[in-house]
Amino acid sequence: MAPSGGRSVFIGPRLRRLRRDLGLTQADMAADLEISAPYVALLERNQRPMTADMLLRLARTYTIDLADLAGDGGADSTARLQSILKEPMFSDIDIPSLEISDLAVSYPGMAEAFLRLYTAYREEQLALAERRGPATVGGASDEGGGYDANDPVAEVRRFLAARRNNFAALDDAAERLAQATSGTSGFIERLKTRHKLQVRYMPPDVMLGSVRRLDLHRRQLLLEDSLDTASLNFQLAQQLAYLELANEIGAALEDSQFTSKSAELLARRALASYAAAAIVMPYAAFARAAETRRYDLEALARQFGVSFEQVAHRITTLQRPGSEKVPFFLIRVDPAGNISKLLDGAGFPFAKHGGACPLWSVHSVFRTPRQTVTQWLELPDGQRFFSIARTVTAGGGSFGAERVERAIAVGCAAEHAEKLVYTRDNLGPRADAPTPVGVACRVCHRPRCAARSALPIGRELLPDDFRTLSVPFGFSAE
Questions:
Q1: Where is the HTH cro/C1-type domain (predicted)?
Q2: Which residue among 11, 13, 236, 465 is least packed, with the fewest CB closer than 10 Å?
Q3: Reported pTM
């Protein structure tokens, strides 16, 4: 009998990855399972289906979760393929849903090859856009001179953007872990029983600049004792992610070629943080709550016991193929305008270099700490977005401890704004009176902007021999 209730299951690539992770040859695995090496090869090439008996034998022999082996029968690959094939470049090709499903189930290797190729294409498109984008940093040329091909932060941003900041396999693994344990006491018990680690809380002067440190020699996980509950749970969840989801994190990194070790380490850290958030805020439960509460970030933060920033970050990841929610972007800036976090799932044309538009409320909310400020934005080309901005604090926890104030803006395209609690009953700013903003001054051609800090590319400054304008840079509107 087939494992999935009568339908044959083909898990060749997953079986091959398991064998390689275990450091086994096909002959080694065949000996362990008491079958022939050619049969292992046929299973890995999907020329034979995986039987229920063989699944159980694999699970017993290598002490692994049966659900991890059986997979989803191609449902995830099917959903990812369907999502990608909605792109405009495929609009003139009629591909029935049944054909997509057949490809994912019957030819999983070909499906995975297509998905990897498309992801690589998206990364190259994003990199090309940055190379062609105008630079606004001092001393750089106007057209692409400021692009740094070896910028590890830019590489990781492209890596996340190409995947719409969603990693379904990590979400699934994190959800299983969340079902086994949750909350501070549950995380601590998991570390104790599964990993033989004792959790200890230490003062900052003992931690020497760390908030979390794993001491494998003494079998201890040391945490700074001034962490608030949200930060404490996140650090515990992140350590569990590093310990238990290393294979899933590694698999998510497999299909990307980073140009430096720093970029790879940053991406690994980003995925560990993603997994930690998915443990604390499991995808299914969080997505359901987000829709029920109409994306009320403060309410969601209280429901899941997390910080405003943590929930704002998690809201950008709800783009699982087949279960997509409102697509959001996120930007985090400091009072000087430096961008320290950038996640784009909503198609907002962020400046690749330099700061964003000063008319955007994300730069002014420092004057109203902890207050949520909403704003309608209109770009020069007519695109409209809805933005939610608020300050967040990092550090602190004791008198004299250093605190860092930053501002976060989360937003979506105008067509999704009606799904948000912030537009209910017209309590906020009017949709028909958006703030005219630009991506950056050097590429914004609005002639009457008093906040302008630079002349637009390609425009000549008007002489002021006979007239002084009310704007910093006067140029012809034609």
A1: 15-69
A2: 465
A3: 0.74
